[in-house]
TrEMBL record, chains A, B:
FAD/NAD(P)-binding domain residues: 7-329
Annotated region (Disordered), positions in chain: 163-182
Pfam family, one: Pyr_redox_dim
Keyword set includes Cell inner membrane: no
Protein family (similarity comment): Belongs to the class-III pyridine nucleotide-disulfide oxidoreductase family.
Highest taxon listed in the record's lineage: Bacteria
Organism: Streptomyces oceani
Protein name in the entry: Flavoprotein oxidoreductase
UniProt cross-references to InterPro entries, sorted A to Z: FAD-bd_OxRdtase, FAD/NAD-bd_sf, FAD/NAD-binding_dom, FAD/NAD-linked_Rdtase_dimer_sf, Pyr_nucl-diS_OxRdtase_dimer
Occurrences of domain Pyridine nucleotide-disulphide oxidoreductase dimerisation (ranges): 365-467
Length: 487, 487
């Protein structure tokens, strides 16, 4: 007896959406499950995290960032419809309304209404959208976000027209370049994206200024650790301006960005990059009255099913995830979570079983050869969560001190008073510093105390670590602080 | 009311002994606790793990391997007596007998009996001794162990007399070098020390042959992973001969090593390095009828106190430690454990409190740029422990595949059937491969299942990891194997 073929509709064809599609297809045949995925953009399954390295030139070809083409997905019986936007979600009627975008930008009337598509199961993987503050001049030519491959391509096109002095010998340039004048880039926001984009633009020969409202760049670290990032950025020749609120982007009479005004100072800008952060893209979900959290992300259960809805799943940059350290939901847009969500959703949609228990807030990045990592809670986050803590900082080296190229790293560690439970770690250093944060990420997941961490059996050999790994040195100091502080 | 000043006697002044002394001194003043440490050798507090890098030339100066000189210890009111050997331990009488070695080798009658020294508390930190099989010719000139700094110096002295062709332009050489003939080194044993010494000798310009009885080099890995190490050694130009039992070291008529015989083949050898492994140095303890385990190491409680003795502690290479994965005691000679033991002993001896819960068997090493790591149990060890397991191997990359210099690593993972508990991980790869084993080391300590590991929030950014870290890829495959295998 044949059961009715079900239809799975997926909105958004990047990491979460297409991982879910692939995983569901592994578990269910096309005869059992039809899979339709709608993507309003021009690309599916690409690595947004790789965009700064493509812009900077380390990754020469855009297509290297594409994990799987639409054709490859279709070859596996996934009905992927590119440039197709979902305009409405009818939860009661179990259907979505779509429109097909034309070859243009998708603005205006360049589209065709396709009507309603019914679904049995729905996956919301609508991602995030970059924050674009309502500044005067924000829509000037030469102001770019870097959220999607299309954004990256637009930025690269602008950069090519600005070919900085010293990078091109082209004397036929008609776009105002080739005049020997240095080209200026202003990056607004000094978080991960802003810092990575600053380095990329320096590598392309631009003079780069980064503007941020916070006390230090990289506000995903405490300010004392962020200061080390500032130093490294300055060493690269990046101008770092903090505690600077941008009030205006000024354009020339042809509508092109020419300067950014912040804190009363004008910073010249041939190009402006927005690295202010992202927000969950949940317009459809909000209109459909699906449950959203404080950060505007969808709220799900542990199986990534939207709360209160038995046949709707959501994952990736459009959801909030449980922070296992603070016990609160948080919005963290990160490709590695998005992929995990997709796997979990695909397993559950396909009739298997999987859960996503939550995150501990791990992130790693680099500026030039400076590696920057954090996991768990910052001081302010610990306070907000109602936790009383001790905070300690140590310096140690990535290798045995006598081994060639041993370099210094700084490790900050937070532990709860009384229990001694690890709450967070931040690391800034050179080679081998960043991924050491994984030690703390696992310890946080396991709920270890810093005292327990002092006995961890970590890999030791002179080329890899001092006899006490920096994380152990930090744990010892934190454990001592817990004992001395008492309750 | 003054209490009687206690005396702490420490036998052996390397990592464990002097860490214990330093820690105890921090907690107890010289008025409360007298600390006397006896060391029969010429050096205290040095990094034996660094010897191969000193021999190879990466560490130019021997003294860089010395963490603290005897004078520095004495300045902190630790009565450190060098070249003083403890010859007997009288547990009932709470005293040790010592003799002072002369300026010579310490063999024969070149010493002075110093009589008995009473103790209130005793620390045994006698370390390990290299295995010297009773082969014909083992005592020939040019046969060297590399356990101590003195061993290393003796080897270096030999190497200098053999200055290989192409390394020296010295035409006045009177030791048989400078004749254009390549110099041969044979390393017996292809474990960590043997592999590291092979690389060091290649770096010094020798032709190097490594002989081992096992199927593959690095028998601290399973054979399928050891094969990758063999390939890397061969790429360096090292001749690797396995399943070869050494039967004789042949000397010339001046008593100098000239060849090693193994499996019926003669391998020319101007110098022979023993890298066969070490055994706990517990002669004193055995004579005093202290409790020893199957591997010949002292048995202690969790506070590192010798079982059944309230005022004797032991740690470092002369003890057995609890393997937290198999539940059995094991002998693991490793500087990082020795230092931890010293800290724990010093805290307890000084009136504080600390324990050493055990190890999970983590080790990391490298050959040229190939990084080699393991933690937990090998297949054979799991079998011996009575564990039924699944074993999986994956290949992935250290960075995002599109990021420059992404290189392959292989990760092997063992998990218990039914429970899915992680049992062991082995990793072989290039930059960034080795220390990834720490993720598994923490997971083993926490008793995680491979299913739980699939959700770990590990640091992700394209320069550091693919979107699925190789350890996550391995955990996913192992989790699938656990599910499919059933009980």
């Amino acid at each position: 007896m044949a059961t009715r073929r079900e239809r799975l509709v997926i909105i958004g064809a990047d990491a979460t959406g297409m991982s879910a599609a692939s995983q569901a297809r592994r578990l269910r045949s096309p005869e059992e499950l039809e899979i339709v995925a709608f993507e309003r953009g021009d690309f599916a399954s690409y690595s947004a995290c790789g965009i700064p390295y493509w812009i900077g030139g380390a990754v020469p070809d855009r297509d290297q960032l594409i994990a799987r083409t639409p054709e490859e997905h279709r070859a596996r019986d996934i009905d992927l419809r590119m440039r197709t936007e979902v305009t409405a979600l009818d939860v009661a009627g179990q259907r979505v309304r779509t429109r097909r975008l034309g070859t243009g930008t998708g603005d205006g009337q360049d589209w065709t209404d396709e009507g309603w598509t019914p679904y049995d199961k729905l996956v919301l993987a609508t991602g995030a959208r970059p924050v674009r503050p309502p500044l005067p001049g924000i829509d000037a030519e030469g102001v770019h976000g870097v959220q999607s491959l299309s954004d990256g391509q637009a930025l690269l096109d602008t950069l090519h027209t600005l070919e900085p002095a010293g990078r091109s010998g082209d004397t036929n340039d008609t776009n105002g370049a080739g005049d020997g004048r240095p080209r200026h880039a202003v990056v607004i926001g000094a978080g991960y994206i802003g810092v990575e984009m600053s380095e990329a633009l320096i590598q392309r020969g631009f003079r780069v200024t980064v503007l941020d409202q916070a006390e230090q760049p990289m506000s995903t670290l405490d300010a004392d650790m962020g200061e080390l990032v500032r130093d490294a950025m300055c060493d690269l020749g990046i101008e770092v301006v903090t505690e600077a609120a941008v009030t205006e982007i000024r354009a020339d009479d042809r509508g092109r960005a020419r300067a950014v005004l912040a804190g009363g100072t004008e910073y010249p800008a041939d190009v402006v990059v927005l690295g202010i952060g992202v927000r969950p893209e949940t317009t459809l979900a909000r209109d459909a009255e699906l449950p959203l959290g404080d950060a505007g992300g969808l709220l799900t259960d542990l199986a990534m099913r939207v709360r209160g809805h038995r046949n709707i799943w959501a994952g990736g940059d459009c959801v909030e995830v449980l922070d296992l350290v603070s016990g609160r939901p948080r919005h963290i847009a990160l490709g590695t979570h998005a992929n995990k969500h997709g796997q979990v959703i695909g397993a559950n949609v396909g009739g298997g079983y999987a859960t996503f228990p939550g995150v501990v807030g791990t992130a790693v990045s680099k500026v030039c050869d400076l590696e920057i990592a954090r996991t768990g809670l910052l001081e302010e986050q610990a306070e907000h969560a109602g936790l009383r803590y001790v905070s300690t900082v140590i310096e140690s080296t990535n290798r045995a001190g006598y081994y060639p190229d041993a370099t210094t790293m700084r490790v900050k560690m937070l532990a709860e008073v009384r229990t001694g439970r690890l709450l967070g770690v931040q690391i800034v250093g050179r080679e081998g510093a960043g991924k050491r944060v994984d030690i703390a990420a696992v310890a946080l997941t396991a709920g270890m105390t810093v005292e327990e961490m002092t006995a961890l059996d970590l890999g030791y050999a002179p080329p890899f670590s001092p006899v006490w790994d920096p994380v152990l040195v930090a744990a010892r100091k934190a454990a001592r602080a817990v004992r001395e502080r008492g309750g």
